[in-house]
Design goal:
heterotrimer; A mainly alpha (289); B alpha/beta (235); C mainly alpha (357); B: alpha/beta; six-stranded mixed β-sheet; globular; C: 357 residues; two-stranded antiparallel ribbon
C-alpha cells in the first residue's frame, strides 16, 4: 500500500518523541508534558537562524543544542523544587509550562506555519511509472531514528553514564550512597531527552506540512501513547510504538474515515489496554530488599 | 576511624538522636544496639550524610563530614549498606556491582573477580535480575557492592534482617573476617543483639535516641540490666 | 445555638441549603450592582465555576488527574448547540439537561479505560482526548458546522424581566443581567449538589479510594466503578458548564474548546484551591475578571494589547500562574485562607489556655 511510507514518516516523528520520553523516564521517573512545546520552541529558534543564511544542518544542531540547554535549565528551575512531592505536581507544572511556551511562541512568531527546506529531496520515487510514496527524505528520517534509538539503547545498557542515570531514577538514595551524583544525573536526563525531542520537531518542520506553535500537541500525545504502549523502559519498544501509531493513522485515514484520524492514538491506547487489561505498566516502582 | 561527637538529629518536632557520641576504630567492629525506634538507623544516615544533624560533629579521621554531600562522603572510602539492603531489583547482579565500583578508583574487572571469588553464589547469578534473588543472596550482593569499592569504613544497617539463623551466623563470621583482613572500621547496627555481640569488639546501646551504655562488647553483653531492658535478651 | 452550629459546619443538608441559598442571593445582588459588561463576564465565570466544581471532584477527591475537561465541556456544548440550532424553541432546562447527559456519557466513555491508568498515563490519555476535540469538531462538518461553527439563540430574556429596565440600552442591559442571574442560579444549584456530594458517603468512599485503595477494596468498595463514577460526575458538570458557556455566547466553534482551555481550568482550580468548594467559586471569579487582569498586567508591563504579545498574554499569565501556584502555594487561595484560619484558631486556643493560668 502506498501509504505505508507516509505512515512510517509520521511514525518516525512520534518515535523520536517517544524515545525522548523513554530517556527522561529511565533517568528521572518524571515525564515532561511540555516536551513537545519545548522542542517546538527550540526548532523555531533554529529556524529563524536560517533567515540569517545558515544551512539545514546548522539549523538542526542549533535546535538540538538550544533544546538541551532548555531542558537542563527547566529541570534545575522548575523540577528540582518538586522532588519528594506528589508525582502529579511536576505534571501540572509542565502542563502550565506548555501553555506559557506556546503562548510565547505564538506571540513572537504568530500561528502561521513555518517550513525548513529539507536537505534531501521529498519527491517520491517512481517505480514502473507508478508513484511509490517513498522519498529520500523519508529514508533519511527512518535511518536517523534507528541510529538514535541504537545510541540511546547502547547508552543505557553499556555505559557508566547510562547505569548511573538508571540508578538515579530507580533508587536515588541508594545511588547517592554509592557515590552517584544523582542531581547531576537528573539534569543530564532532561538535557538528553530534550535534545532528542528537538530532533523530532526539526523533522516535522522539514516535512511538507511544516511547523506551527501548537503543532507538537498532537505529536506529543502520539509519542506519549507510543512510549506507554511500546514500553517506557525500552527504546526499541518506543520506536516500534511510534511507527505503529503512524501506520495506524494511515490505516484509519484510508480505510475508515479521515474524520476519525485524530482519535488514532486513543484507539490504539484503548486496544492496548484491552489486550493487557492489567494496565499499561502498572508495575510498582522497584522493591528494594 | 570514625568519631561522633554529641550528635543531635531531629525530624521536625521528633528528636531522633540526642547528644550521641561514639568512636569506631579500624580493625574493630562497633555494634550499635537498641530497640526499634532507638535511633540506630538515623545515626548511620547522619554519618553517611543522608540526614543533616541539628548539632554535633562527625569526623572521619581528621575530616568533618558535616554538610558534606553523601556522594562525596562515599568517595572518601565510606560504604553504607542501608536498611533493607538497597539492592536495585530492576538491575542485574553485575550491574549492581558495577554501580558499586563506579565512584572508586578500583579496576572494575579486578574488583568483580575479587567479589565473585568471595561470593560464588553471585558469580553464578551475575546476569540475573535481582528481583529473583533470595534474602541471603541479596545480603551478599549488598556486601559485595559495598566492598568492591575497597572502602575503609563499613556501615551496616541490620544485615541479619529476614535471614535464617544459619545464614545470619555465616554472615556475621564473614563480617568479622573481612573486618580483620581488610582492617575495616565497621559500625554494625543490629536489633539481633545476640549475634552482633558475638563478633563485636565494642558496643553502644541506644534508647530513645540517647546512649544508655557503651564500652567493651563483653561487658555490655554480660550486664543483666542492659540485657533485660534494652537488648531484649531476657533469660 | 445548635442550629447555628450545624449551619456553620454544614452538617446537614438543610443547613447546607440555607447557606447556598444565602450565597446565591448575595451573588444576585452583586449582579444588580455591577454594570452590564461585568455581568456578562460574571455569567461566563459562573459557567466555569460549574466546570471547576466537577474538576475538583475528579482531581481533588478521587485523585485522578484529568487534562481533558475542556473536551467534556465541548461535548456538552455541541450537544446543546446542535440541538438548539435545529430546535430553537426548546425550553432551556431541557437543552441543559441534554448537555449534562451528553457530558456524563462522554465521561463514561473516557472513564472506563481510565480505571486501568494511573498518574502520568491517565494524564496522557486525558490530554489525548482534549487535544483531539478541536480536530474532531473541524472534521465532522455536517454535524458541527465545521470551522464556522453553529449559531443559535436560546437565552431569550422573559418579558417581565425586560420591563424592569428602562432607558436606551434597556434590552442589552436586561439581557446581560438576565444571563448573569440565570448563570448564577444554575451555578448555585450545582454548588449545592457538589456540596452534598462532598459530605456524602460517596465523598468519603472517593477519598478512601484516592488515599488507600487497598483499604477501600477490603471494605467492599468497587474500585473501577467508583473511579469511573468520578469521571461521569465531573464530565456531567463540565458538559453543563460548557453548554451554559456557549449558550451565553450564542455560538460554538471548534476553537471554543482548545487544549489551552483545559490548562486554564487546571490553573483556576489550583489557584482557587484543589478539592474545595470555595476554590471553585474563586476560580470562577478569577475567570470572570481575567480580561481585566490581563489588561492590568498589560498596563503594568507596557504591552500593547493589539500586538502579538498582547493577544497571547492570557496564555502566558495563566500558564505562569499555574507554575507559580504549584511551586509556592499548591493549596491555592482557599488553602492559604484555611492556614490563616487554623493559625488564628490555635493562637486563640493558646491565649485562652494562658488566660486560665
Amino acid at each position: 500500500m502506498h501509504n505505508i511510507f507516509g505512515g512510517l514518516a509520521q511514525g518516525v516523528i512520534y518515535s523520536l518523541v517517544a524515545l525522548s520520553l523513554v530517556i527522561i523516564w529511565q533517568s528521572t521517573h518524571v515525564l515532561n508534558f511540555a516536551q513537545g512545546a519545548m522542542a517546538m520552541l527550540a526548532t523555531y529558534i533554529g529556524m529563524t537562524q536560517i533567515d540569517r543564511g545558515i544551512g539545514y544542518w546548522w539549523c538542526l544542531v542549533i535546535s538540538v543544542v538550544v533544546g538541551m540547554v532548555f531542558g537542563g535549565v527547566t529541570e534545575r528551575v522548575l523540577i528540582r523544587p518538586l522532588y519528594g512531592k506528589p508525582e502529579i505536581n511536576p505534571i501540572v507544572v509542565m502542563v502550565g509550562f506548555l501553555g506559557v511556551i506556546e503562548a510565547v511562541a505564538t506571540a513572537i512568531w504568530t500561528s502561521t506555519t513555518r517550513n525548513i527546506a529539507a536537505p534531501f529531496s521529498q519527491v517520491f520515487f517512481q517505480s514502473h511509472g507508478n508513484l511509490v510514496y517513498l522519498s529520500p527524505f523519508i529514508i533519511f528520517q527512518v535511518i536517523l531514528a534507528v541510529v538514535i534509538m541504537l545510541l540511546v539503547a547502547a547508552l543505557f545498557r553499556f555505559t557508566k553514564l547510562g547505569l548511573q542515570l538508571r540508578a538515579s531514577a530507580l533508587a536515588p538514595e541508594v545511588a547517592r550512597l554509592l557515590g552517584v551524583r544523582v542531581n547531576r544525573m537528573l539534569t543530564i536526563g532532561w538535557i538528553l531527552s530534550a535534545g532528542v525531542g528537538a530532533i523530532a520537531a526539526v523533522i516535522l518542520a522539514s516535512g511538507s506540512f511544516g511547523l506551527f506553535p501548537t503543532d507538537m500537541d498532537g505529536v506529543f500525545v502520539a509519542g506519549f501513547i507510543a512510549a506507554a504502549v511500546g514500553g517506557l523502559e525500552s527504546p526499541i519498544g518506543a520506536i516500534a510504538g511510534g511507527l505503529l501509531i503512524g501506520l495506524a493513522e494511515q490505516f484509519i485515514l484510508a480505510y475508515w474515515s479521515p474524520n476519525v484520524a485524530p482519535l488514532g492514538g486513543i484507539i490504539i491506547l484503548v486496544v492496548a489496554l484491552m489486550i493487557r487489561p492489567q494496565g499499561i505498566f502498572t508495575r510498582t516502582v522497584g522493591r528494594r530488599v | 576511624m570514625i568519631r561522633v561527637d554529641n550528635l543531635s538529629v531531629s525530624y521536625g518536632a521528633v528528636k531522633a538522636l540526642r547528644n550521641v557520641s561514639l568512636q569506631a576504630s579500624p580493625g574493630l567492629i562497633t555494634a550499635v544496639l537498641g530497640a526499634n525506634g532507638a535511633g540506630k538507623t538515623t545515626l548511620l544516615r547522619a554519618i553517611s550524610g543522608l540526614v543533616t544533624p541539628q548539632s554535633g560533629n562527625i569526623l572521619l579521621g581528621e575530616k568533618s563530614l558535616l554538610r558534606m554531600p553523601t556522594e562525596n562522603i562515599c568517595r572518601l572510602g565510606l560504604a553504607h549498606v542501608p536498611e533493607g539492603r538497597g539492592v536495585i531489583a530492576e538491575l542485574t547482579v553485575e550491574d549492581n556491582l558495577r554501580l558499586g565500583a563506579l565512584a572508586s578508583k578500583v579496576n572494575l574487572a579486578e574488583g568483580l573477580e575479587t567479589q565473585y571469588a568471595q561470593f560464588p553464589a553471585l558469580a553464578d547469578r551475575r546476569k540475573k535480575y535481582c528481583a529473583t534473588l533470595s534474602g541471603g543472596e541479596r545480603q551478599m550482593l549488598a556486601m559485595a557492592r559495598a566492598l568492591i569499592a575497597q572502602p575503609k569504613v563499613l556501615l551496616l544497617d541490620e544485615p541479619s534482617l529476614g535471614l535464617a539463623p544459619l545464614v545470619t551466623s555465616e554472615l556475621m563470621k564473614l563480617i568479622l573476617q573481612l573486618c580483620e583482613s581488610e582492617n575495616l572500621t565497621v559500625i554494625l547496627v543490629e536489633q539481633n543483639a545476640k549475634s552482633a555481640l558475638r563478633i563485636a569488639h565494642n558496643a553502644v546501646v541506644l534508647h530513645l535516641g540517647a546512649v544508655v551504655a557503651s564500652g567493651d562488647a563483653k561487658t555490655v553483653a554480660d550486664d543483666e540490666d542492659l540485657r533485660r531492658y534494652y537488648l531484649g535478651l531476657v533469660e | 445555638m445548635n442550629w447555628l452550629g450545624s449551619l456553620r459546619k454544614q452538617e446537614t443538608t438543610h443547613a447546607r441549603f440555607i447557606c447556598v441559598l444565602g450565597l446565591t442571593i448575595l451573588a444576585l445582588v452583586v449582579t444588580i450592582i455591577l454594570p452590564p459588561v461585568a455581568d456578562s463576564q460574571l455569567a461566563s465565570g459562573a459557567a466555569i465555576t460549574i466546570v471547576i466544581l466537577g474538576l475538583s471532584w475528579l482531581i481533588g477527591w478521587s485523585g485522578q488527574i484529568s487534562l481533558g475537561n475542556s473536551g467534556f465541556m465541548a461535548v456538552g456544548a455541541y450537544a446543546a448547540g446542535i440541538w438548539a440550532h435545529h430546535h430553537a424553541t426548546t425550553p432551556l432546562v431541557f437543552t441543559l439537561l441534554l448537555a449534562t447527559v451528553a457530558g456524563a456519557f462522554s465521561g463514561l466513555v473516557v472513564g472506563i479505560p481510565s480505571t486501568r491508568l494511573r498518574g502520568p498515563y491517565l494524564a496522557g490519555m486525558t490530554l489525548a482526548f482534549a487535544a483531539a476535540i478541536t480536530p474532531l469538531a473541524q472534521n465532522f462538518t455536517s454535524m458541527t458546522g465545521g470551522e464556522g461553527g453553529l449559531f443559535f439563540n436560546t437565552l431569550t430574556t422573559p418579558k417581565w424581566f425586560l420591563h424592569q429596565f428602562g432607558g436606551i440600552n434597556a434590552a442589552i442591559n436586561a439581557n446581560a443581567q438576565w444571563s448573569a442571574d440565570l448563570a448564577v442560579v444554575i451555578a448555585g444549584v450545582m454548588f449545592f449538589f457538589m456540596a452534598n456530594l462532598f459530605h456524602s458517603r460517596s465523598g468519603r468512599a472517593m477519598r478512601l479510594v484516592r488515599d488507600n485503595d487497598v483499604a477501600a477494596e477490603l471494605m467492599g468498595i468497587n474500585l473501577p466503578r467508583t473511579r469511573t463514577l468520578a469521571f461521569v460526575v465531573a464530565a456531567a458538570f463540565a458538559g453543563l458548564g460548557g453548554a451554559l458557556f456557549t449558550l451565553l455566547n450564542a455560538t460554538v466553534t471548534p476553537e471554543t474548546f482548545p487544549l489551552t482551555l483545559s490548562i486554564t481550568l487546571l490553573t483556576l482550580m489550583v489557584l482557587g484551591g484543589i478539592g474545595t468548594l470555595s476554590g471553585a467559586v474563586i476560580g470562577g471569579i478569577i475567570y470572570s475578571f481575567s480580561p481585566n487582569l490581563v489588561s492590568y498586567v498589560n498596563s503594568l508591563t507596557g504591552v500593547n494589547p493589539s500586538s502579538n504579545l498582547g493577544a497571547n498574554m492570557q496564555g502566558i499569565i495563566f500558564g505562569s500562574l499555574l507554575i507559580l501556584t504549584m511551586l509556592f502555594a499548591p493549596r491555592g487561595i482557599a488553602g492559604v485562607g484555611l492556614k490563616i484560619k487554623h493559625s488564628l484558631q490555635s493562637r486563640r486556643k493558646l491565649e485562652s489556655v494562658e488566660n486560665v493560668n
